[in-house]
Amino acid sequence: MKLFYHKKSMRTTAVGLLAAVVVSLPLSGCQGNPLSELISSAMPSSGATSSIGQAVASQAASKVTSAASAAVSAASKAVSAASTLKSAASKASSVATVQQKPKTPVKKSSSTKVETGNQNLKKIAIDPNAQTGKQLSVSQSKPSVSSYSYVDQRSGYNALKDTPSQNLYKMILASAYEISTQANEQGYYPTARIQLGKVHLSETQIRIALMAALNDNPQVFWLANAYSYGYGGSDTFVQLYSMVSPSACNTMISQLNQKVSSIINSMPSGLNELDRELYLSDYLEQHLTYNTAAAADTSLWKAFNAYGALVEGSVVCEGYSRSMQLLSSYAGLTCILITGQSDGVNHMWNVMRINGSWYHLDNTWDDNNPTIYNYFNVTDAVIRKTHSIFPSAYSLSEAQINGTATGTPAGFNLVIPTCTATAANYFRAKGIPVSTESNTDSSAVVSAIISAANAKKESISFYVTDDADYTQVMNGMLKTSPYRLSDYLNQANASKSLKNKISLRSIRYLQDPDNRGLTVFLTYS
Length: 525
Fold this sequence. Notes:
This protein is an alpha+beta fold.
């Protein structure tokens, strides 16, 4: 069932949020060539006033020649007209800085779908022939994995307030596995009719229970976003629909199980919770492609679920989120879905429970080339700078949830964990710690860079420790003397233990003051 998508657009960087910069570090004597290699022994001249982040920092020898000055001047004027967070790490080939621009909201067009989540659940007329055809059971087999203990995601079920709603939740899951062999006029395959005896559930209760069941069970990927309901005597009847026939569903279940087994069984054993989460997140970033067509056409339903993500590799935000949740279950991690908006468009991402604390994880927004980690395990305060979170269903009226109040059902969440911890934030947990120059162990920094380069990593991340001023540390690394980033990279390249020489022809980086982080993108000679 497709519920949410986020139209992935070219997002310009937000002032005060993430500054994406392309950096070149030419030498004196490079004859105006901003792609020249750094000389490890060179140091900035007092006359080289341009900065890494704003112009081009020249690592000069004892004397800056007029040719070097010309190179710096030429490079500093080559400023890109705009930058996007998405392309900062992959598409910016200019050697000049990419100027920071205010964030531009997504421009909605006639093809932009806004009825998502609860808004996208469609009540359709009861089909009197829904139960007349033959129905077959589909496979309830599971992936074959053994490395980690399975976690049953049940946050939605646990949020249901009454026993009839909990019973409906269970019956929804049972119904999903009994599918008609014949499609109805709308192309749906009816599932087994649900009958709750001696109770009249309201439409609000039905919608909430349906959302809970779907949001806890990403393995049930074939349900359509349509339902019918009615009453007979004192009973409530609910009808759901499959997007595919029983035979097609069985094939797809088998394919998904094989893919999940392969991913989880390839994960090293004995990883802690954070490293398991990082392994899965990296897998998704490396193997999935954002489906821009599906963002404008919700009939491409597989991009919205775990099957489309893991088997076909084509997704929108809901596909990222549901596949992360499915993999998390088999990796022994608790993972829920959270819904709201980003760039003015409805959006879905994950909230992860790592070592007892909750964190926001948005793989859609981290899906860059190379991968970035600016939305990996962040706090409420950080996520709310670019995302809004839909309210709790229980804070809304029935008219708001059903859409009778405004004509459009309201978006909601069943569970909204508080995310204030920072220990498992990517930069804090995995970044190379840096502080003021006097308080930073330069040899440890260089050693960490060498280790990353020997593994041929696409990027390295730094974390500015809490005892230091973030802006001052960034200035000292990137914009003013002593240009510590240049020094670290030069020392790494001069080391005999380095296996892969880092190319310094164009150093690109991404600042993240909200997470006290810095990502430097690496290429190799």
